[in-house]
Write a structure and sequence with these properties.
single chain, mainly alpha, 13 helices, 3% strand, antiport
Length: 340
């Protein structure tokens, strides 16, 4: 992951493109695909190693910024510095308002109002990235002027905008982020609304945000994941959890539980033992009480054939399952009687 990020930076510099923008784009792609290709231990190692390197680099950059700030080689031009600051703010506001306008056209469930747009634009602070870019300029007679203007913009945005952003948030009554407890109902409801809205947009011919989202998900799962992502353990883990839930469900049945216990390998064929051994090893062992509860009901069943196909348990309609419920073998046509 680190090698690919550094390679993207070198390739961008070779074609005279912004290396920082290249790293940002590479990080967006790696956050979605590369993290799925490594183990949890490697993911933890990369996460904290990059945090450590980031903290060290920020310290070095701001230390160097302080050394340059007290340098005596600055070139001050009031008109250029003020116009650069004004244009920086103007471009920031114009970009934010344009992007939020496009987002509001696509996303109709929650639109970004004018107060939120203003806070987003006003909160754009300049710091290490702007300083690093101006330091990387070629040595010309105007480089010191650019450095002086950049330092003024950094100080203005950090101390003026940064100090007044909190009172403005309270004044404009901007909704703050709240910690929400996620639940299965919320996740299912969100997915259901997304699919329903995508279907409505497809029927009406109005291609909104849900349509494009579903389209991206389709091409991502059909093509991009096959090329950029190895086989994930998520599907295996899901099947293991399905197996565990089915076993727990069978354990709480009454009469048919004994018969179903013998048919469980056929019903749980979606998960092989090899796939679930690594995860089931870490589960707590079965207690003696659970074993006694499981041994309360047994059943007499004829031996299975070697090439036996998947069998179905036929439950007669109109009869309630009980401890003496008769189950019919679909192949041999004789009942399987359970006994306590």
């Amino acid at each position: 992951m680190l090698g690919v990020a550094y390679l993207s930076y070198l390739l961008a510099e070779m074609v005279h493109f912004s290396g920082i923008i290249s790293i940002i784009g590479c990080g967006i792609v790696q956050a979605h695909y590369a993290s799925k290709n490594i183990s949890e231990k490697s993911k933890t190692t990369v996460k904290y190693f990059t945090k450590m390197v980031s903290a060290v680099c920020d310290t070095v950059i701001f230390l160097f910024l302080g050394m340059v700030l007290v340098d005596d080689q600055h070139i001050w031009h009031t008109g250029f510095v003020l116009s650069a600051t004004f244009l920086c703010l103007l471009v920031r506001f114009a970009t934010v308002f344009f992007l939020t306008f496009c987002a509001n056209k696509l996303e109709r469930t929650h639109c970004i109002n004018e107060e939120e747009q203003f806070i987003i634009a006003y909160g754009g602070l300049r710091g290490a990235v702007a300083f690093s870019l101006v330091i990387m300029l070629d040595e010309t007679e105007h480089k010191n002027l650019f450095i002086t203007a950049t330092l003024f913009i950094i100080l203005f945005t950090v101390f003026v905008q940064g100090a007044t952003i909190k009172p403005l948030v309270k004044l404009l009554k901007i909704r703050r982020q709240t910690v929400k407890n996620t639940s299965m109902f919320t996740e299912v409801n969100t997915k259901l609304l997304d699919h329903v809205m995508a279907g409505v947009e497809e029927v009406t011919g109005d291609h909104g945000g849900n349509y494009w989202k579903q389209l991206l998900f389709y091409y991502n799962s059909k093509y991009l994941k096959k090329w950029l992502q190895c086989k994930s353990t998520e599907s295996n883990l899901t099947r293991v959890y399905t197996r565990m839930m089915l076993e727990d469900h069978f354990a709480h049945l009454y009469g048919p539980a004994a018969a179903i216990e013998d048919h469980k390998p056929l019903l749980l064929n979606k998960v092989s033992e090899e796939e679930s051994d690594d995860i089931l090893e870490v589960l707590p062992p079965v207690t003696e009480e659970e074993e006694e509860d499981g041994d309360e009901m047994t059943i007499d069943q004829p031996p299975q054939q070697e090439a036996q196909e998947q069998e179905e348990i036929i439950v007669p309609q109109g009869r309630r399952p009980s401890a003496k419920f008769d189950l019919q073998d679909p192949e041999e046509g004789r009942p399987l009687k359970s006994k306590r």
